[in-house]
Design goal:
The protein is mostly beta strands and 156 residues long. Helices cover 9% and strands 37% of the residues. The radius of gyration is 21 Å and the shape is extended.
């Protein structure tokens, strides 16, 4: 067996301390334009495959059905449907939220795919699968170029 090659878990040992890891996440080509349009223009854009007649949100640079390159960008409606949802009572650190958060998978009208985001202006007992919703953007001065530039989706 070569020196240093681990072949069994029992050969490993814990390392105590910190290992600094540096990296930078990039949105990619499609994500860059998607978030810039939200930030600068308060609109949601998708990419369209002419061959398959599909509009993708989030946008992609290749069609997942026919593998064609997607170059056509189109504005998509800011309305959609709550496809499914969950009600969160705790944050990511396990702390109890002051009020429950409603997280939904929203399928925007006329597109393939959708966005997972918070619902607002609605109480948990009022939410229904299939409920019509519409996007509420943050004020332009507050937008930074992230998915959180969408404040929430409200009943529509």
């Amino acid at each position: 067996m070569p020196v240093g090659k681990v072949v069994q878990v029992s050969q490993t040992k814990p390392l105590h301390g910190e290992i600094p890891v540096y990296g930078q996440y990039t949105f990619g080509i499609a994500g860059e334009r998607f978030f810039r349009e939200i930030k600068d223009n308060g609109r949601i854009m998708g990419t369209r495959c002419e061959k398959c007649s599909l509009t993708y949100v989030p946008p992609r640079i290749y069609c997942e059905r026919c593998f064609e390159g997607l170059k056509e960008w189109v504005a998509v409606p800011s309305t959609g449907t709550a496809h499914t949802y969950t009600i969160a009572h705790f944050d990511l650190d396990g702390a109890k939220l002051p009020e429950p958060a409603i997280i939904a998978m929203v399928q925007l009208d006329g597109v393939y795919g959708g966005l997972v985001h918070q619902l607002g202006e609605v109480r948990p007992e009022e939410v229904k699968i299939g409920m019509s919703v519409e996007v509420v953007f943050k004020d332009k001065a507050e937008r930074v170029g992230s998915i959180n530039d969408i404040a929430y989706f409200k009943p529509g």
